[in-house]
Specification:
Structural class: mainly alpha
Radius of gyration: 17 Å
Strand content: under 5%
Largest sheet: none
Order of helices and strands: HHHHHH
Distance between the termini: 18 Å
Number of helices: 6
């Protein structure tokens, strides 16, 4: 989809919206233990929402969307998920765990593997049930 006013508006709105949930998750769940569960859960939520928006946007024959609906979904995927699941926070927390390098490696691998598993669970299962569109 070309970059137009609808896409710019939806990306601008969607970038601001996830700041509060990401902050709330980190404050509430990053207190106990060494594993930053708040950031992990924000990243996983962003991954699942991105997978769902990818399914809806890549299946044009199943769902007919207006340009504004497409712009809103692009904003949700790019803006909301991009801001909710920030790489900068993940890298900061990986760096803060380097006092015990094994923890940083475990956290990094755990996050990447769970994100891949969640995408396989959303996009992969959808394509398995409904058939992959290879054209």
């Amino acid at each position: 989809m070309p970059c137009g006013p609808g896409t710019l508006w939806s990306n601008g709105w969607a970038v601001r919206a996830p700041r509060t949930p990401r902050y709330t998750l980190s404050v509430r769940f990053n207190r106990d233990g060494w594993f930053p569960w708040g950031t992990f859960s924000a990243n996983m939520l962003g991954t699942v929402v991105l997978g769902i928006t990818t399914i809806v946007l890549d299946r044009p024959r199943d769902v007919v969307l207006s340009r504004w609906e497409q712009a809103a979904l692009y904003g949700l995927g790019n803006g909301f998920c991009g801001c909710l699941s920030t790489v900068s926070t993940w890298v900061f927390e990986l760096r803060s765990l380097t006092t015990v390098p094994e923890r940083a490696v475990r956290y990094g691998m755990f996050t990447v593997l769970w994100a891949q598993a969640l995408l396989l669970g959303t996009i992969g299962v959808y394509n398995w049930v409904h058939g992959a569109d290879t054209g």
